[in-house]
Amino acid sequence: MKEYTTYIFDLDGTLLDTLDDLAASTNYALHQHGMPQHSRDEVRMFVGNGVGRLIARAVPENTPVETYEQVLQTFREHYLVHGLDRTKPYPGIMPLLRDLKQRGKLIAVVSNKFYAATQELCTHFFGPLVDVAIGEREDIRRKPAPDTVNEALRQLHADRASAVYIGDSDVDIATARNSAMPCISVLWGFRDRQFLIDNGATCLVSSPQEILP
């Protein structure tokens, strides 16, 4: 793989397998409000655009806005407590990050997960291996807008021309394109190969080791 100076990673489905905890918190929130629950695979297709869109896709059609907001709040409260229950790094991720750090690379995480959860997960699992972690917050547009990537580059004092974006979804492909940087699409995450190709993926990897220079 081509060598870069800065590596900007998506979080869910790229570095961390968070699907079980996302599905559990989604179904807990739905159950608390008397709504039908969803399978793990259904929740897999709901994620990628932030928890607001996750819950919007999970609640029944024509759910009143006030009720949707209540379900979303229940999800947030549950996930902040249970977001680490079954979440774990994908195989090979920790060696990848350690290797990149030993090579002197800058590492950032940009996620559509809400800010507090992004910070907590990155601190818990990666510690000093991740230089900057940015999640969804009110003052910055979420992906696929380039804002979170631009903010990561700013905090890292990094050159866009030597940076690469790594993710597992169509949102990540669009984010990289909107950020004017190359994209590496991973095949162990929430979307399959054909879906990624159909959405413009040009560089796909089957294991974290393939990302190394």
The number of helical segments is 9
Mean pLDDT: 95
Please give the largest β-sheet.
6 strands, parallel
Strand content: 15-25%
Poorly predicted regions: none
Alpha-beta classification: alpha/beta
Query: Rough shape?
Result: globular
Radius of gyration computed on alpha carbons: 17 Å
Q: Helix content range of the residues, please? A: 40-55%
Record field, number of beta strands: 8
Name the helix and strand elements from N-terminus to C-terminus, one letter apiece.
EEHHHHEHEHEHEHEHE
- Order of strands across the widest beta sheet? 5-4-1-6-7-8
Query: How far is the first residue's CA from the last residue's CA?
Result: 5 Å
Descriptive labels:
single chain, 213 residues, alpha/beta, 6-stranded parallel sheet, two-stranded antiparallel sheet, 9 helices
Verbal overview:
This protein has 213 residues and is α/β, with parallel strands linked by helices. The chain has 9 helices and 8 strands. The strands form 2 sheets. A 6-stranded parallel sheet has the order 5-4-1-6-7-8, with helices on both faces. Helix 8 (170-178) links the parallel strand 6 (163-167) and strand 7. Helix 1 packs across helix 4 (65-82) and helix 3 (51-58) packs across helix 4 (65-82). The protein is globular. The mean pLDDT is 95.
Secondary structure elements and their pairing?
Layout: E1 6-9, E2 16-17, H1 19-32, H2 40-46, H3 51-58, H4 65-82, E3 88-89, H5 93-102, E4 106-114, H6 115-125, E5 132-136, H7 147-156, E6 163-167, H8 170-178, E7 183-186, H9 193-198, E8 204-205
Parallel strand pairs: 1-4, 1-6, 4-5, 6-7, 7-8
Antiparallel strand pairs: 2-3
Helix pairs in contact: 1-4, 3-4
